[in-house]
From TrEMBL:
Annotated protein name in UniProt: Trk system potassium uptake protein TrkA
Record keyword Ion transport present: yes
Cited InterPro entries: K_uptake_TrkA, NAD(P)-bd_dom_sf, RCK_C, RCK_C_sf, RCK_N, Trk_Ktr_HKT_K-transport
Domain RCK N-terminal: 1-117
Key word Mitochondrion present: no
Amino acid sequence: MRVAIAGAGAVGRSIAGELLENGHEILLIDKAPTAISVERVPLAEWLLADACEITSLDEAALQRCNVVIAATGDDKVNLVVSLLAKTEYGVPRVVARVNNPKNEWLFNESWGVDVAVSTPRLMSALVEEAVSVGDLVRLLRFSHGDANLVELTLPPEAALAGTRVGDVEWPEDTSLVTIIRGTRVLTPNKEDALEAGDELLFVAAQSREEQLEDLLSVRRTDA
């Protein structure tokens, strides 16, 4: 997979290193000469250019990229890069970094963003995830379809503890994608029984989050 990363700062280089380890082809783009540190990520391609300019993106052959990541420290730049990548080059997947949480509302499909990653929100979500049992925690927002990646740790008093996944009437527009049980990561199947303490990861429409939390958190009693 070919991935272009706009922004060769600490964030961009870190992402590049991880993706290179997974066997992907990486192009790092930055307009600041001081950011071009080939020795730090020697296996990546490097381009000294302004990622907000069409001529630069032509030189980068952005149309050959499977993914573009807008990872600069400037939200305006990240939005422009995202929009150009999607509308001018038809890049299938565009991921954008949100630096200021106040700008999150802009990072959607109107600006070509498929996935918006807000570092402050992600950090706060991870703190909540570490200390919360029975509360739904939003980890990541996907622009298309108004869907979010959410997590809930099943409390001991949950009505569904002991219930098979296939027997649960999940809300519409939700999908259980992973069960984390201790040190194990399980791909759910209909025969798996939910256990107290399971960390459940869902992709869910925002409108269904409250319904999902009620289903998983509350022990229902017969009337």
